[in-house]
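INFO batch 0412 | record 1 of 1 | parsing
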Amino acid sequence: MLAVDMGMYRVMKMWKTIVSYLPDWQVFIQAFIAFFIPYLISRLFNWIRTSEEEC
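INFO prediction complete | emitting tokens
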């Protein structure tokens, strides 16, 4: 039983170490916005260009 507890302790310690290197959730939101807004702008201009070609 002690070996299982030590194994679980090592796993928890490993995950705490991995998570400590991850940035805060705000960084992920900022990255999403930084990539999503230019994508939306490019899709908007693509839609405008294709609608002008149809007329």
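INFO post-check: The longest helix spans residues 25-54.
INFO record closed
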